[in-house]
């Protein structure tokens, strides 16, 4: 045995669900991965935002996030001009690059007593990667928001809904809701507020679906924000 969990055959329903959810999660990861471009903004405006997602999630928080994001897109010039793109780029940098919002997109900073990177949480995510034979050449820490979302999508694509639920409980849902709430409260543009709220709402709704479909009840939640008031200190 090589210690790696290999994909097992899943039912067509599980496969279809997993693929749709994985595509959604990867789309969310893409919204956090880079500053918005003209092409991305036009893609988002090309159809109703809810149609961009494979799963239909009828929840007020997701509807409000989509409405906020839609309003943000409507207020931008079409196509977005240099001034609008610069404003979005500055907000992206404040969230992901300069720590201006004190909302670091890395799990270790949120879930440990010291707001530092590369702590136990990172090594636990690495262990998940090894367990499922996932290799990435991305230079960011594996407990970065974007990489955690891509790994979650990998599990979903394999039809491993129970494992995806466990990973959500042990990693993203420990800190992403607090991260998204802080970003929404402190960012300057409604575009990133909507993106943050949509991400947090989607992951929470996805966990409920996994609980129903894969016999993985949700554990008692931990409030990462109450334990870590000053992220990325």
From TrEMBL:
Q: Which UniProt keywords apply?
A: Chaperone
Q: Which Gene3D superfamilies has this protein been placed in?
A: TorD-like (1.10.3480.10)
The source's superkingdom equals Bacteria
One Pfam annotation reads Nitrate_red_del
Name this polypeptide is given: TorA maturation chaperone TorD
- State the species of origin: Azospirillum rugosum
């Amino acid at each position: 045995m090589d210690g790696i969990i290999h994909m097992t055959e899943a039912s067509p329903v599980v496969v279809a669900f997993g693929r749709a959810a994985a595509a959604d999660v990867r789309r969310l990861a893409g919204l956090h991965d880079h500053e918005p471009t003209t092409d991305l903004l036009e893609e988002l405006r090309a159809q109703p935002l809810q149609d961009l997602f494979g799963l239909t999630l009828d929840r007020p928080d997701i509807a409000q996030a989509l409405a906020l994001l839609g309003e943000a897109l409507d207020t931008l010039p079409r196509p977005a001009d240099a001034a609008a793109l610069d404003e979005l780029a500055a907000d992206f940098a404040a969230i992901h690059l300069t720590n201006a919002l004190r909302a670091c997109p890395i799990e270790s900073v949120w879930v440990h007593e010291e707001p530092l990177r590369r702590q136990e949480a990172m090594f636990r995510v690495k262990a998940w990667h090894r367990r499922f034979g996932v290799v990435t050449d991305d230079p960011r820490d594996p407990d970065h928001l974007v990489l955690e979302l891509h790994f979650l999508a990998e599990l979903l694509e394999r039809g491993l809904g129970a494992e995806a639920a466990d990973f959500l409980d042990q990693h993203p849902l420990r800190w992403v809701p607090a991260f998204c709430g802080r970003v929404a409260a402190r960012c300057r543009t409604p575009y990133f507020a909507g993106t943050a709220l949509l991400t947090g709402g989607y992951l929470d709704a996805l966990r409920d679906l996994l609980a129903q479909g894969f016999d993985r009840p949700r554990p008692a939640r931990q409030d990462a924000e109450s334990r870590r008031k000053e992220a990325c200190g």
